[in-house]
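[job 0417] fold request received: DJB14 protein
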Amino acid sequence: EIGNAYAVLSNPEKRKQYDLTGNEEQTCNRPSNGRFNFHRGCEADITPEDLFNMFFGGAFPTGSVHSFSNGRAGYSHPNQHRQSGHEREEERGDGGFSMFIQLMPIIVLILVSLLSQLMISNSPYALYPRSSTGQTIKMQTENLGVVYYVNKDFRNEYKGVSLQKVEKSVEEDYVSNTRNNCWKERQQKTDLLYAAKVYRDDRLRKKADSMPMDNCKELERLTSLYRGG
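[job 0417] inference complete; emitting structure tokens
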């Protein structure tokens, strides 16, 4: 019934005949222009599956359908539709591949992140106690007296030259952190003095003068130790 309805509605001559007779069988089996309708009625024009594919699959019917142009019936070869089916499969494959290409940067970032986490080992020391890593045992470098924290197995694993390398790394990290913190303290003091001058606020000036500048003092101490003072 769906095939018959589609055949009648898609063909102007059949639709006109149906409007006159109101009979679907006569419309489908009626000779056209003196020639018998070789389509054997309307049933072979299109199937429900073909209609479904046309509206929801974004493609043309997969079976042998008839096309009408200027009132003349034309026959399309089934191989053409099979080819279009293969083309749809290839398009689906290309769509999956293109989606994979679009997701490739994200996949690469995830893999790089995982590899970096696997390759980077935990530091054997910490400048501040870390209970999560077990680095709670307090130690002190021999050269600058910098305090750092290690786990319970540190003394068994690091001795002699390896311990000296660790302590050198500890001192470099400590000096770098102290230098950065000293720069922040100086910048904050400079900002306060500038604001006190602009707004003529004596309270801001006193606040700037009373800043402890602990990191800058520690940096001076470390510098004097480097120089042997």
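[job 0417] notes: Residues 105 and 111 are 10 Å apart (CA to CA). Residues 34-40, 58-73 have pLDDT under 50 and may be disordered.
[job 0417] exit 0
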